[in-house]
Amino acid sequence: MESTSHSEPASHAGSSVTVRCWGVRGSIPSPGESTLRYGGNTSCVEVASGEDRVILDAGTGIRLLGRRLIEEGRAQRAHVVLSHFHWDHIQGLPFFRLLFESDTSLVVSGPRQGDAGVAGLLAGQMDPNYFPVPLYSLAAATDFEDLADGQLSEGSIRISGMRVRHPSITMGIRLQVAGHTICYVPDNELDGPTHGLDESGWRKHLVEFVRDADLLLHDAMYTDREYEHCRGWGHSTFRQALNLAGEAGCRRLLFFHHDPDRSDDELDRIVDQFRNESSRRGLGVEVDAAAEGRECPFTEKT
Fold it and tell me: What span, in angstroms and rounded, lies between the C-alpha atoms of 29 and 19?
């Protein structure tokens, strides 16, 4: 695999990029009246440019995405990139309908966990003890690839990975397409235990990894007070995520991996608080919280 580089892939004239959130919660789905506006499905984000499509994580939100792609007849090819293999990032994959379509071509990438590769890890999830349909019975043409500190690609979309601080081997993901940079870091403890990573230079490397992102989706599971009781669990606070976005010169920050007990009204208040803080500190970061169904379109830079 190539070494990480932030040079731009060739883009197609007139192409555009759309980012759409299909699941934004962490840990466990949280349907109910208090989560209707931001959504209760777990992690899944779609990035599309023309016929090229990358799906970031396969939480429960991927079920609705798969259904939509089939209904609209746009289900020929996709690349699913898994940040890691905790339940809330893979629990929707067995219900992703494209897996069972014989005219579909899929690539599934993710970080190895010791000696275990992507196919083996997912085969365990779909073992008959846990799920009635085994991995080897899938109808789609499916390839499995390792995602490490290097690069993959899906058509015009360049995919880079960097290991971040979270229990198990977990990757942050940087996508470059049509002159835009989208960074996705759903599980990451910015200012706590290293979770087995070498401390030397890690923060500086992370800042450069998300440098000048047009859109950064970053773990913001806790308030400052909540974090006092959850230190070491592998997640960040809203303020820590904003500090990173400001330091790296990111243009837009979406708080991501919402606590399953966080209500829509709470998120509204938190977004208002940190929008004001970004403005007061002169960070130049547009702040919002990721919400199911919300699209972030980009036009190609010239």
Answer: 21
